[in-house]
Structures are given as structure tokens and as C-alpha cells.
From TrEMBL:
Record carries keyword Transmembrane helix: yes
InterPro entries: DUF247_pln
Superkingdom of the organism of origin: Eukaryota
Official protein name in the record: Predicted protein
Pfam families: DUF247
Alphabetized UniProt keyword annotations: Membrane, Transmembrane, Transmembrane helix
Transmembrane intervals: 346-371
Length: 376
């Protein structure tokens, strides 16, 4: 096997990770759900010509630019190959579309994308696909001098205002979606990255006394276990969630293999969810908000998300060890069983308390009778 031979998704000159940031999705995750990586309305970027299987014959990636005289980046020309000088496909129109979307009113414009919000949702979804990207530094070089607060405009277009710093660095729109999530881990104490060898599902953990608490931040990745309570961010499942997560996870596997924090979180969630019963319980606890229908669909989505994803260690590994240890404790499990059997709901709890009071009164009466007999 020739290890020097380029393969699909490999850059011709992989020397600068700031520039080499757009990849073809590997075959294994793509085969699970090809539509999740395929644009529906908008085609841009260096890989727009290679959305079908035959495009994998190309050894390198080709992009275009509108203004090489302004950019004047020789290294970029090497990486993006000979046709660099031609054009950035759809780049200018994409920014125009974003500007018009942010400035539009309620009146009809004659533009279907402007007049039909359902199409705008699809366009936004297309703009974050890994294979449908332009390097952000190109857009920044071209538009930052002429569009005031260009990065803030981009952030607001994707509804991330206030959720990410205006000076945050991202390499393209897919990376922006990742940054919004990864920045929630900043400032946390360092953790050891190890593989999660095993963890019980949510129903088993709950039956063993583990409590679940939702943290109201749908983009957070922070998971912790404190005093028998597993605290997790609220995972909102909507129509485009699988598409978003699949492309972020593909980016992490290709570009951030040892900082794959979104992959790590989804692997952790995959351990918790085996069947729709686990989803039922997590929905009840507020950990999951299901906007796509049956809970079985959520279980299927989560279980398939990690197919073909490389696991190089998880920041959740320590948490999984703590959770398993808590579940394995006989004392914790016995206490959980007693609580579930005798205080499972208000009526059972009331009946249990009434029975205990009756037993106590009977005991007091018996002791009083014995004392009275002894006195006589």
C-alpha cells in the first residue's frame, strides 16, 4: 500500500491547518446518512463539484477566488491548486443573501428565498455542511473592509448572538457551529482524556439511584456528576439537528481528532440511550427536548450518530467512572429501590407515611399497655 498516495479528503499540501480546513466526509459516516452531508439548495466552496461518489477520484481539493490581486496569498494558491485564480463559487452571492436576510421586511421581494422562510431554513442548513464551505479568512479578507462588523453579522445570521464572542476564531461556518458548543467548556478544570470503557444506560442508572438534572443551555457540552446527580445540558432534537451534528463530528474527526469535544459528548449520550425507554426518562427529566415526534426516532438518531466516528478519548471518562461506581454501590441501589417502592408517587408516599404512623401508634399503645400491666 502506498501511504504517500493522496486519499479522499486529504489536502495536497497539508502544511497549514488554518487554511486546510475543508474536508470530504469519510465513507463510513457518509454511508449511514448521505443526505446529511449533501446541500439541497446552495452550492459553494472548493468541494461543490464533488458531491457525488465519482468525485472521490480527485486527489486534491480545488477552490476559486474573486480577487487574487487583493488577497495575494501564495500559500493559499498552492493549497487550493491551479484554478485558485478563477473565482469563489457563490461566495459573493452568499454574503449578499445573508445581508438581504438580515435587512428584509415583511413585504414581498420577488426572491423565493427571501419570501419563503422555509427555504431560508434550508439555505442556513446548507451553509453549515462541511463539504459546502469557503475558508472564512477569504470571506473576511474580502468583506471585512466594506461590511461593518462583518463577523458579528455572520454570528447574528446563524442566531448565535450572545452565545459566542464576537472575536472568536473559526475557520468556516461548520467550525462556527462547533465553536459555539466548545466554548462552553472554557475555564473548566482540566480533565484526563480516556476512553469510556463502559457505562450503564439511563434507565438502569435511574433505577440505581442516580438523579438527572438538566442545565438550561442547549449548546453546552459540560457534563458533571455531583452528589449522586448527573447534570447535563438540555439536548434539543429538531429536524436539522442530526445534519448539524453529523457535519460537526465529521469536521472534528478530520481536523480536531484529539479535541473532538462534540463527538465526546455524543458518545457519552449514546451510552445513556439504548432504547426509547431511555429517551422517555431523559425527556421526563428535561435532559432531552424532542421536537421530531416519536422517542424511538431520537434513540435511533443518537445510536447511529457515532457510527464510523473515531474515539480518541473523552473528557467525560471520569464522569462515567463516577456514575458507574455510584450505580454499583449496594447501599445506593437498595435506597433507590426502597424509595421507588414506598415513595414512588404522592399516593404511595402518603400511604407509606400513614402506615408508619399507624405502626408507631400501635407500638406506643402496646408499650403503654405493658407498663400499665406491670404497675398493677
Amino acid at each position: 500500500m502506498n501511504l504517500k498516495r493522496p486519499f479522499p479528503g486529504m489536502w495536497r499540501f497539508p502544511t497549514n491547518p488554518e487554511i486546510c480546513c475543508i474536508y470530504r466526509v469519510p465513507d463510513c459516516p457518509r454511508s449511514v446518512n448521505p443526505e446529511a452531508y449533501t446541500p439541497q439548495l446552495l452550492l459553494i466552496g472548493p468541494l461543490n463539484h464533488s458531491l457525488k461518489s465519482q468525485a472521490f477520484k480527485s486527489p486534491g481539493d480545488v477552490t476559486y477566488t474573486m480577487s487574487t490581486g487583493y488577497l495575494n496569498m501564495e500559500e493559499c494558491k498552492k493549497i487550493y491548486l491551479a484554478e485558485f485564480t478563477r473565482r469563489v463559487v457563490g461566495g459573493e452571492n452568499t454574503i449578499k443573501l445573508i445581508l438581504r436576510t438580515l435587512e428584509r421586511g415583511r413585504e414581498k421581494t420577488g426572491d423565493p428565498i427571501m419570501d419563503m422562510p422555509c427555504l431560508e431554513v434550508i439555505v442556513k442548513s446548507d451553509l453549515m455542511l462541511l463539504e459546502n464551505q469557503l475558508p472564512y479568512f477569504i470571506l473576511e479578507k474580502l468583506f471585512d473592509p466594506v461590511v461593518p462588523k462583518f463577523q458579528k453579522l455572520i454570528i447574528n445570521y446563524f442566531n448565535f448572538g450572545g452565545k459566542i464572542g464576537n472575536k472568536s476564531k473559526f475557520r468556516h461556518f461548520t467550525d462556527l457551529f462547533r465553536c459555539v458548543r466548545v466554548e462552553t467548556l472554557q475555564g473548566l478544570p482540566p480533565r484526563k482524556f480516556k476512553l469510556i470503557e463502559h457505562m450503564y444506560n439511563a434507565v438502569k442508572l435511574h433505577s440505581g439511584g442516580v438523579k438527572f438534572e438538566a442545565v438550561e443551555n442547549e449548546y453546552s457540552l459540560y457534563v458533571r456528576f455531583e452528589n449522586g446527580c448527573l447534570k447535563m445540558p438540555c439536548f434539543v432534537v429538531h429536524d436539522h439537528e442530526e445534519r448539524i451534528l453529523r457535519n460537526i463530528m465529521a469536521l472534528e474527526n478530520c481536523h480536531y481528532p484529539y479535541e473532538a469535544h462534540v463527538c465526546t459528548y455524543m458518545i457519552f449520550l449514546d451510552y445513556l440511550i439504548d432504547t426509547e425507554k431511555d429517551v422517555d426518562m431523559l425527556v421526563e427529566k428535561g435532559i432531552i427536548r424532542n421536537w421530531i415526534g416519536q422517542h424511538s426516532l431520537v434513540a435511533e438518531m443518537v445510536n447511529k450518530l457515532c457510527v464510523g466516528i473515531m474515539d480518541n478519548g473523552s473528557y467525560c471518562s471520569d464522569t462515567s467512572v463516577e456514575v458507574n461506581a455510584y450505580y454499583s454501590s449496594p447501599f445506593n441501589r437498595s435506597r433507590a429501590v426502597l424509595k421507588r417502592v414506598y415513595f414512588g408517587n404522592m399516593w404511595i408516599g402518603t400511604a407509606t407515611v400513614a402506615a408508619m404512623l399507624l405502626l408507631l401508634m400501635t407500638l406506643v399503645q402496646t408499650v403503654a399497655s405493658i407498663i400499665q400491666v406491670k404497675q398493677k
